[in-house]
Specification:
transmembrane helix; about 200 residues; mainly alpha; about 80% helix
Length: about 200
């Protein structure tokens, strides 16, 4: 349950003002068709974060516990710093939208925009952090992380689709980014101090 709740909360906060949320605003303003946009975001996120979760699980199996502890701890601290840097949407990510219809445009642009994005990297790091050595628990934990990060993306992006720019002006983005950065930093410090020792790192 912890993996699900932490993954949901951290990604929902990290996604506020992120380039994929900005993309949701742009697509909503352009197409004015919320349902296919939301479905496109959901499918793109499930596929993207599923791959990220699998990578996190593989890292847990392939890297020694001591190295993993340092890599994860420093990754979370780097995520804290990255979260404080505002994102800008790339124009080429929105030009794809005219070629595939609303659902297809959202699916393609969201998947591409999420590649290497902070929420995808966070999914990899959290999947590695919460993966336990036991095979059954390993799969369940990875599943909880992916469900949590996907849910976090939807919590941040569904209102963006429905309310668009009106919502963006009222959310204190600096405060939200600061809270998300503090959570990432706390996870990083806790990991470096051995808080995951019960999981083998």
């Amino acid at each position: 349950m912890e993996a699900l709740l932490v993954s949901t909360g951290v990604v929902a906060l990290a996604e506020m003002g992120d380039k994929t949320q900005l993309l949701a605003f742009i697509l909503a303003a352009r197409f004015k068709k919320p349902l296919p946009i939301i479905l496109g975001i959901l499918v793109a996120t499930v596929v993207n974060h599923g791959l990220a979760g699998a990578l996190g699980g593989w890292i847990t199996a392939a890297v020694s516990p001591e190295i993993l502890r340092w890599v994860l701890g420093l990754s979370f601290i780097a995520m804290a710093i990255w979260t404080l840097i505002p994102d800008k949407i790339e124009e080429e990510e929105t030009t794809i939208a005219g070629k595939f219809g609303v659902f297809g445009a959202t699916l393609v642009t969201f998947f591409l925009a999420e590649m290497g994005d902070k929420t995808q990297i966070a999914t990899v790091a959290m999947a590695a952090h919460y993966s336990s050595p036991a095979l059954g628990a390993h799969f369940t934990t990875l599943l909880m992380v992916v469900i949590g990060t996907t849910l976090g993306m939807m919590i941040a992006n569904v209102p963006a689709v429905f309310i668009g720019d009106k919502l963006a002006d009222r959310i204190p983005m600096k405060l939200v980014h600061t809270i998300a950065a503090c959570i990432f930093a706390a996870l990083g410090v806790a990991t470096l101090l051995g808080a995951g020792s019960d999981l083998g790192f």
